[in-house]
Amino acid sequence: xxxxxxxxxxxxxxxxxxxxxxxxxxxxxxxxxxxxxxxxxxxxxxxxxxxxxxxxxxxxxxxxxxxxxxxxxxxxxxxxxxxxxxxxxxxxxxxxxxxxxxxxxxxxxxxxxxxxxxxxxxxxxxxxxxxxxxxxxxxxxxxxxxxxxxxxxxxxxxxxxxxxxxxxx
Length: 169
Hints:
Elements: E1 2-5, E2 8-11, H1 20-27, E3 46-49, E4 52-55, E5 68-70, H2 72-75, H3 83-90, H4 100-115, H5 134-140, H6 151-168
Parallel strand pairs: 1-5
Antiparallel strand pairs: 1-2, 3-4, 3-5
Helix pairs in contact: 3-6
Keywords: 2Fe-2S, Iron, Iron-sulfur, Metal-binding, Oxidoreductase
Protein name: 2Fe-2S iron-sulfur cluster binding domain-containing protein
InterPro entries: 2Fe-2S-bd, 2Fe-2S-bd_dom_sf, 2Fe-2S_ferredoxin-like_sf, 2Fe-2S_ferredoxin-type, 2Fe2S_fd_BS, Aldehyde_Oxdr_Iron-Sulfur, Beta-grasp_dom_sf
């Protein structure tokens, strides 16, 4: 099978029961995405597939042939960080760092959802645009757990990155 991950096409000969997370970590050396719970409950394994965030521990790699897959390694690099990565550094949006890749990738996907007008349980009216309040961010990021409780800094980082990404859009 062929998978396109971070704009690189990979020819793979893998067991059809292998998760996308395990392909990236064990077969391709892309270890940024973490295996936190292996049950889709923590968000440490979040990747973007065709721009939409998913828990990569819950999906089989064979389901994503032809899809565009982005991991934390595909968002930026040390010399050219993604605005969300910069904001997490600036706001100290991490402590132990284990959940950080999933938080960052999820935040990038979440901002796309907001831009596309997706509703949430906090949004009163998405027809007129969604305000990215702290409550809105917390609700939309609720699938990503930080056991160190860096949530206030994560919310601040997302607010900063959102504003910066709107300026450059």
